[in-house]
């Protein structure tokens, strides 16, 4: 059943006139104008300015099926300038997605399918969450990279089962954001020829004409990146737009940027070309003036049957998907193992022997008794998991040796080797993270990428969006504390662990040794969302465990020392490198006849999802003597130790010195734990 209702009927015997391109584009304009006006909130200017470009792209080029927004071989469309989302909602509605006129009337209202910026998972046909400018462009680079990689892995002669384009709309704001430099530079180096970006060059941002703050030569800039550049395209000339897209598609070894000269708020007699149309309703008087100027006689939210019929893409989309499905069925017969693997990856299914893979690694890790940095333990995990999961694609922001994000036998991805699984992102933490998000929501890939924990600040907004989208991105952060030593306070994270824990829907693991590292990686791979894995630079001792302890690691927190059946006098809670300090302190306190329990809590968020009976078994409510130990900000831990407990951590910046000296200087020591415990008697 069509999502687009028929509004009126043509009298019998009267021929319907086919709408022209301007009328089709105006349907986008007026749905956008009306929705913003009704909501009394939103951004009408961009949809009015880019409607002509969108009409040509969606009607003449875009391969998609509104009845199946998840068809694997669809073209991807990303609205990086996401504030103009009514353009996308209008397109989805007009072409036949499950987005009704009533949904458009609920624009920007609570729990509607038309939120104030595009949100992945909320609106059918929206490929990624955009709004923070530049990140949609970065996601598009990730999607184009995923397409190129999966094509190299699965396509065979006569069977291009992965063969589509990624189209991105981006504005001045997207290109001003630094992330655009990071990702577009890399996209050119990797030769992502299926990536086509439309630059909405309207010279206007919120503060007015951008000539006062954005005078870059965009053409030369993108030529320097190695892009195919099409300059000075009239964004209101359908013929010029169509010709530009055809030229862009002819270039196979470079991404293309089509620089479209447009007028923001096009069609508005008094506000077109001004910042007044950017982020506010036009007002009833100006809306009426636009209707008169563009000869649009309809009441708000009215679209004629003729225009609906011309826009409807369901039949075309059904045929496109059917043609691809016939190709894939032939592919299954010719290459059954590849087809089976393709389906497994696209359906986000782990291999059937996954439990065996995990068990084997845990057995290996339990045998490694020598002290080991958890970043090196992480590499051992990658040697095991990456070989079992060919969909894992990793990388580092120019810290491969330090992050230990490579693995034995891995192949570097490049323009010449698109089937490689290791990406040298360069010093681009933010770009790396947003590209990972694009690959994650594309599907068929589990991306991970590394940098130092302190540099997660550079990438934070991409990490936040990964959590918001439930994107299966794995962020690997090494050098996770003052334990990195001599590099000093600029590189020593203090507030970072706590701040990452504050992001909703983001899972975080900080393991204390090689066994916990194996479980942390396991849970990150299994988690239907984003995960941060925090690893040390310095060596940590192996902790002995029985089978029950090992099983309980995946519950986020568990009793590492002490009898679970006996009420403790004192509970020490620790994570990561501080677990060994807690264990050493506990053994000395036990010599004083103190019944000490050590709780290792590698993942506080996972622990807090356990049933209350388990949480209270690990942390008995009637034991008020509790000390939390973590080499970072202390405030977070009071929820676990309560008003009567103590937290040993760091609420100052570190120092440049060997790790042991810095720990001593910051007061994170065995001696301080013991002293604190004795004072609590």
- On the 0 to 100 scale, the average pLDDT is 96
Outline the biggest β-sheet: 6 strands, parallel
Helix content: 40-55%
Strand content range: 5-15%
Cα radius of gyration in angstroms: 28 Å
Key structural traits:
about 675 residues; alpha/beta; 6-stranded parallel sheet; disordered N terminus
Model description:
Helix 2 (45-61) runs parallel beside helix 3, helix 7 crosses helix 17 and helix 22 crosses helix 27. It contains 27 helices and 20 strands. The strands form five sheets. The protein has a six-stranded parallel sheet with strand order 10-9-11-12-14-13, with helices on both faces. Helix content is 43%, strand content 13%. It has 681 residues and is an alpha/beta fold.
Structure summarized in a few sentences:
The protein is built from 27 helices and 20 strands. The chain is of the alpha/beta class and about 675 residues long. A six-stranded parallel beta sheet has the order 10-9-11-12-14-13, sandwiched between helices. A five-stranded parallel beta sheet has the order 1-2-3-7-6, with helices on both faces. A five-stranded mixed beta sheet has the order 16-18-17-19-20.
Architecture blueprint of SSEs:
Layout: H1 21-39, H2 45-61, E1 76-79, H3 85-95, H4 101-105, H5 135-154, E2 166-171, H6 172-176, H7 178-190, E3 195-201, E4 204-205, E5 208-209, H8 218-225, E6 228-234, H9 238-250, E7 256-261, H10 284-293, H11 305-311, H12 314-334, H13 336-346, H14 354-366, E8 372-373, H15 374-388, E9 392-396, H16 400-403, E10 422-424, H17 429-442, E11 446-452, H18 456-469, E12 474-478, H19 496-501, E13 507-509, H20 514-526, E14 531-534, E15 539-540, H21 547-553, E16 558-561, E17 570-574, H22 578-591, E18 596-600, H23 604-607, H24 612-618, E19 626-629, H25 638-641, E20 646-648, H26 659-666, H27 670-679
Parallel strand pairs: 1-2, 2-3, 3-7, 6-7, 9-10, 9-11, 11-12, 12-14, 13-14, 17-18, 17-19, 19-20
Antiparallel strand pairs: 4-5, 8-15, 16-18
């Amino acid at each position: 059943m069509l999502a687009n209702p028929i509004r009126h009927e043509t009298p019998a015997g009267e021929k319907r006139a086919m709408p022209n391109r301007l009328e089709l584009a105006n349907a986008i304009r007026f749905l956008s104008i009306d929705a913003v006006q009704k909501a009394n909130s939103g951004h009408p200017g961009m949809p009015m300015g880019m409607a002509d470009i969108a009409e040509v792209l969606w009607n003449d080029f875009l391969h998609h099926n509104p009845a199946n927004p998840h068809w694997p071989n669809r073209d991807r469309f990303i609205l990086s300038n996401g504030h103009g989302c009514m353009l996308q909602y209008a397109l989805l509605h007009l072409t036949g997605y499950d987005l009704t006129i009533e949904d458009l009337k609920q624009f920007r209202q609570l729990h509607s399918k038309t939120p104030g910026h595009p949100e992945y998972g909320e609106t059918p046909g929206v490929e990624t969450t955009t709004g923070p400018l530049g990140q949609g462009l970065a996601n598009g680079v990730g999607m184009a990279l995923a397409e190129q990689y999966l094509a190299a892995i699965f396509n065979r002669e006569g069977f291009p089962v992965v063969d589509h384009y990624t189209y991105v709309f981006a504005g001045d704001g997207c290109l001003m954001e630094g992330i655009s430099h990071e990702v577009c530079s890399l996209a050119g180096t990797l030769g992502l020829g299926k990536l086509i970006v439309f630059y909405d060059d309207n010279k206007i941002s919120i503060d007015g004409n951008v000539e006062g703050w954005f005078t870059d030569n965009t053409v030369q800039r993108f030529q320097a990146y190695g892009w195919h550049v099409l300059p000075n395209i009239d964004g209101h000339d359908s013929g010029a737009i169509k010709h530009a897209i055809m030229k862009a598609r002819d270039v196979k070894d470079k991404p293309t940027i089509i620089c479209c000269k447009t007028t923001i708020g096009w069609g508005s007699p008094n506000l077109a070309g001004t910042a007044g149309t950017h982020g506010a309703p036009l007002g009833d008087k100006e809306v009426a003036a636009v209707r008169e100027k563009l000869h649009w006689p309809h009441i708000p939210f009215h679209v004629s049957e003729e225009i609906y019929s011309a826009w409807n893409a369901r039949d075309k989309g059904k045929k496109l998907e059917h043609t691809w499905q016939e190709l894939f069925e032939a592919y299954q017969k010719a290459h059954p193992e590849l087809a089976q693997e393709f389906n497994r990856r696209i359906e986000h299914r782990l291999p059937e022997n996954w439990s065996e893979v995990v068990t084997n690694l845990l057995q290996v890790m339990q045998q490694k008794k020598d002290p080991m940095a958890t970043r090196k333990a992480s590499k051992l995990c990658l040697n095991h998991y990456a070989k079992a999961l060919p969909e894992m694609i990793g990388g580092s922001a120019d810290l491969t040796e330090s992050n230990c994000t490579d693995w034995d036998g891995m192949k570097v991805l490049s323009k010449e080797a698109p089937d490689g699984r290791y990406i040298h992102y360069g010093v681009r933490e933010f770009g790396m993270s947003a590209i990972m998000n694009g690959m994650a929501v594309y599907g068929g890939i589990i991306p991970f990428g590394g940098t130092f924990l302190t540099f997660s600040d550079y990438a934070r907004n991409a990490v936040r969006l990964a959590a918001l989208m439930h994107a299966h991105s794995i962020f690997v952060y090494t050098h996770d504390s003052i334990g990195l030593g001599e590099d000093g306070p600029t590189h020593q994270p203090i507030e970072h662990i706590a701040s990452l824990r504050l992001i909703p829907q983001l899972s975080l693991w900080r393991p204390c040794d090689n066994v916990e590292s194996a479980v942390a990686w396991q849970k990150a791979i299994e988690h239907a969302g984003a995960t941060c894995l925090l690893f040390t630079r310095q060596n940590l001792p192996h902790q002995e465990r029985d089978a029950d302890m090992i099983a309980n690691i995946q519950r986020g927190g568990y009793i590492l020392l002490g009898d679970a059946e006996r009420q403790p006098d004192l509970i020490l809670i620790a994570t990561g490198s501080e677990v060994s300090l807690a264990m050493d302190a506990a053994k000395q306190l036990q010599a004083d006849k103190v019944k000490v329990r050590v709780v290792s809590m590698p993942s506080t968020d996972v622990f807090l999802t356990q049933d209350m009976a388990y949480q209270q078994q690990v942390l008995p409510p009637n034991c008020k003597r509790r000390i939390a130990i973590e080499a970072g900000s202390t405030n977070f831990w009071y929820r676990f130790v309560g008003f009567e407990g103590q937290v040993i951590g760091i609420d100052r910046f570190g120092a440049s010195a060997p790790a042991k000296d810095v720990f001593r200087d910051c007061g994170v020591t065995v001696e301080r734990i013991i002293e604190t415990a004795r004072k609590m008697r």
